[in-house]
Write a structure and sequence with these properties.
Layout (H helix, E strand, L loop, with lengths): L8 H7 L5 H13 L4 E5 L4 H6 L4 E4 L6 E6 L1 H4 L2 E14 L2 E12 L2 E10 L2 H15 L6 E5 L2 E5 H8 L12 H14 L1 H7 L5 E6 L6 H12 L2 E5 L9 H13 L4 E5 L2 H4 L5 H9 L7 E7 L7 H4 L7 E4 L5 H19 L6 H6 L6 H17 L5 H19 L1
Parallel strand pairs: 7-10, 9-12, 9-13, 10-11, 11-12
Antiparallel strand pairs: 1-6, 2-4, 3-4, 4-5, 5-6, 7-8
The protein binds adenosine-5'-triphosphate and magnesium ion.
The site of magnesium ion has 4 residues, from helix 9.
Length: 403
């Protein structure tokens, strides 16, 4: 056997037109064009993110022209960004020159990609890969968002989260303090949990009708705790099962602990098909050491009692009710303080509106105030209270038709 030597075409020819042949062919081309260099392949190398942290310098090589397209960063940033689908990067790292080749292609399960590091030696290539992995692992000033089967960094969601605060969140007596203390104490108590032999993890479920502060509270917590956070937007994927998606979600979260995994609208994420797999990930064999799971729902009755009633799964439940009259006064007072000077809305006019908004959510109250401001801006001769009252009637009709 030893005297038979198969050449490289064995793999490319063997795979023929299968897309798996593509990375093999690219690697052969790289090796042929860089005969004296070491070539090390890896996947999802976040070299651009690494460069953004100024840990290396990057330029797309002129000769091998990149396949790239520009996109607009939205009104707020108002600039063009480049997305590279295939690119050869000239990299300067620790005074060394390397090359990173990045290729993306379509396959039967959506998309695939690979990166190759071309360096003077395997040691240098591996050292770069290791450092990139270490420094780009944590989300940094972004939140990791899971959709289409993969994680993306969302800087916008991070900014929205940083803008959230407990100061303007109105919650029933003491609940705000309880929530804040609960999680900050939890994060400081790793040793105590361990010495008592209890798993250091926490699950909280926020329950309540739409528009009463669940999302606001999650964001304020994420900001206050300052840990990495991951947000599951959707588990659907055209080719993979949701079980596999749950595994991807929990695997990444476990690799980032202590961290917060946010599962908004849990009732829509957990289905009959994926429930047992989800439960297994939540409190099965895995320790989930340092993992905080924050879930929200409008429909607790749609969530299986195996999830909702077992303390090992969601050991805290917080109810976000419709505001009481006292809470409506508190909330409207926040707005009055902001708008009073400009609009002439007086403090002693708050109680009347609070009394007339029974069964309003905070979100509806917010809508009432904002629509009144918009209306008042057009007709600023009318007293603000009058405008509020007329908007109240309009909104009440809309709410009735929403029901
Ligand atoms: N308790 C509250 N105190 C102050 N503002 C609130 C409160 N609840 C809701 N709001 C405001 O109303 C808007 C909607 O709230 P939020 O998104 O947190 O609701 P939610 O409970 O997550 O609703 P949904 O179930 O529809 O997701 C936000 O602008 C939020 O700041
Ligand atoms: Mg919400």
């Amino acid at each position: 056997m030893a005297d038979i030597v198969f050449d490289k075409e064995l793999v490319t020819e063997g795979l023929a037109d299968n897309t798996s042949a593509l990375p093999v062919r690219v690697e052969q081309l790289i090796v042929a064009q860089a005969p004296n260099k070491a070539v090390v392949a890896c996947q999802n190398l976040q070299i651009e993110h690494y460069a953004r942290q100024e840990l290396c310098r990057l330029h797309p090589a002129e000769e091998a022209r990149a396949s790239a397209y520009m996109y607009w960063g939205g009104e707020e940033r108002d600039r063009l960004y480049t997305n590279y689908e295939q690119v050869v990067w000239d990299v300067t790292w620790n005074d060394q020159s390397l090359v990173v080749v990045h290729f993306e292609w379509e396959n039967a399960c959506g998309g695939s990609s690979r990166d190759w590091v071309v360096a003077d030696s395997v040691d240098v290539a591996e050292a770069l890969i290791l450092d990139v992995e270490r420094k780009t692992h944590a989300p940094g000033d972004a939140i990791l968002v899971f959709s289409h089967g993969d994680w993306q960094r969302s800087y916008d969601l991070y900014r929205a989260t940083q803008a959230a605060s407990f100061d303007d969140l109105i919650l029933a007596d003491a609940m705000k303090d309880r929530i804040r203390q609960d999680f900050s104490q939890f994060l400081e108590a790793e040793r105590r949990y361990q010495s008592l032999g209890i798993a250091w993890r926490r699950g909280a479920l926020m329950i309540g009708p739409p528009g009463n502060g669940k999302t606001h509270c999650v964001r304020a917590l994420v900001k206050e705790l300052g840990t990495s956070s991951l947000y599951v937007q959707s588990l659907s994927h055209p080719y993979y099962k949701e079980d596999q998606m749950w595994k991807r979600v929990f695997d990444r979260a476990r690799g980032l602990t202590p961290c917060i995994l946010v599962l908004e609208d849990l009732d829509t994420l957990v289905s009959d098909e994926n429930r047992s797999f989800f439960l297994n990930q939540l409190d099965g064999f895995e320790q989930n050491h340092g993992l905080i799971v924050l879930a929200t729902t409008n429909y607790p009755d749609r969530i299986d009692s195996a999830i909702i009633d077992r303390p090992s799964r969601f050991d805290r439940k917080y109810h976000f009710h419709l505001p009481t009259e006292h809470e409506r006064i508190q909330y409207l007072s926040l707005w009055q303080e902001r708008l009073g000077d400009e609009t002439g809305w007086a403090k002693n006019e708050i109680a009347e509106i609070a009394a007339a908004t029974e069964s309003y959510s905070f979100a509806y109250l917010k809508e009432l105030v904002i629509s009144a401001v918009l209306e008042w801006m057009q007709e600023s001769t009318a007293p603000f209270l009058k405008v509020l009252q007329s908007q109240l009637n309009t909104l009440q009709r809309q709410m009735r038709s929403d029901e």
